[in-house]
Amino acid sequence: QPSLLDAPAPSRRLGSDPGLSDSDSEESVFSGLEDSGSDSTEDATASEEEGEGTSEQRGRMDRSPGQQVGPEVTSPTVFPSQARTPCSRMEVASMPGEDEYAEDSSDEEDIRNTVGNVPLEWYDDFPHVGYDLDGRRIYKPLRTRDELDQFLDKMDDPDYWRTVRDRMTGHSVRLTGEQVALVQRLQRGQFGDVSFNPYEPAVDFFSGDLMIHPVTNRPADKRSFIPSLVEKEKVSRMVHAIKMGWIQPRRPRDHSPSFYDLWAQEDPNAVLGRHKMHVPAPKLALPGHSESYNPPPEYLPSEEECLAWEQQEPEERKLSFLPRPFPSLRAVPAYGRFIQERFERCLDLYLCPRQRKMRVNVDPEDLIPKLPRPRDLQPFPTCQALVYRGHNSLVRCLSVSPDGQWLASGSDDGSVRLWEVATARCMRTVPVGGVVKSVAWNPHPTVCLVAVAVCVRPGVPRVGPAHGLEASQEERQDGLWLRIHHGKPVTQVTWHGRGDYLAAVLATPGHTQVLIHQLSRRRSQSPFRRSHGQVQRVAFHPTRPFLLVASQRCVRLYHLLRQELTKKLMPNCKWVSSLAVHPAGDNVICGSYDSKLVWFDMDLSTKPYRVLRHHKKALRAVAFHPRYPLFASGSDDGSVIVCHGMVYNDLLQNPLLVPVKVLKGHALTRDLGVLDVAFHPTQPWVFSSGADGTLRLFT
Which class is domain 375-457+467-698? Predict the structure, then answer.
């Protein structure tokens, strides 16, 4: 035994050879960690028993508890010896006598690590991974290789694909050919043992021959011959329940269809009849004299009545057939609408309400909003005062001078007429040579200018979106001051409140649909860089630097100084036709071709505050009164509806909208009625122009 204890492997573990011990080399990496006193004591005891090494080495190994490992031991060349040291110790201990692990039935794959079934995650924060058979720590190997080194090993080492890491020791293990074959068989779903045959012939443990002796000859139990008291009690309870009628015998199922006539039982004693809210089936109308095959002569329609019956809509006819006389019942033909009427009768029964619902006892008068009486909201126009006649075609537009003395109108007859409001006399007719789409009187009281939008004359050269031409001396004598040519037809012109800027709407796709002209400097500009749909109308804000642009589906509010979009109003209309801004600037109305007038409170929301559906046809124009709380709308039904629209200074109080008067006077021409409306600047009067070629004043 002394010779065995002096073996090279144990002495090298505690010796002073250049190859350092496993613990020293590993503790150099985990510097700052503390070892327990038991481990240091065991190391010192082992060094004394082996009797190898100098005092300096024993002093290095025999450390007191809590002493930190010195940083000078950094040699990583001890890992091969670390993997061999436990095996050497195990061989030395087993040589004197019989091998104590010869009959070991342990399932541990690696008997060097004796941690058992302890999860290895518990050792993640420690420098070791377990303990060997001698109780020494098994330290983790150094992991100084990065992904680049692993990739180089993968490319250079031909056995890299069969190298795996042992979690019990932390070392890399190369699989043998048998182990690789075992893994491949398990991946294919085969058995691990090569010699195992899963398709061996079955062995019958019992033969199929009938024998005279039983397999077991145990006598039967005594309880098999004695009646059960528990079952007797259960049976007695069931018999009592049947006698009392608690348990009913099972009846045979009826496989007939389970449908029934919903309205068959109308007897008061029936289930449906006893229901308080039951609704009886709708009854068919009893036949009269008209349904007879030979009705009396007074029930037979005349030729005029037959013609009128054929021209009526099916929903408007009193009878769905024409009574006819027949000489006998055999001559009556088959009824053509028999199947249709039977189907409608089935729909009546199917869609009829099954049950009455409680009706809320509410006075209908309470549901009507409390509005002031129209006579309390005067003044407003109530009757037609004057008719301005002179145009030979549609009068599409009109405009009133700021002082209210003159009226300008444009027509399809290619002329612009100036009227005196008080006398309805045409003071001047200016031929313009084209259809007049829009006229607008300059709002500045000291400037007497009228802007007229006329179709572009052929042969006029185009230079950009718009260019201006000064009027000649002869044209100035006729009243023409400035001519601005556009590349596309102009559909609307409107003035800024100060009278220097003029906005024009062109019938063209793209970003040049709206142009703003400055008359004092003879400049024109396009304020938009891209288009958001076909522009219908534009209007300047009366007090702030805003421009309202109405497209087909929305109204956009732009800040001209900041050059940004401020708000986007959604009128929920199919096609916006007209636009008007309240004199205070916080409310906007717009009309649409689907017979809607939408009121917007811009301080409240971008959605409509109120939608008025008073007209029966498309709206062509809307207008606010500059002084009175009035607004009007003109429609293709030939009427002008005047409404009271009071806007309060209190922001907590909503505007009051009350329709006060329906004004009629224009005759429908080509399915067109009123084309434009405008209020008098100082009086509660309203002007209207229509497709009948007239202008009318309502006062």
Answer: mainly beta
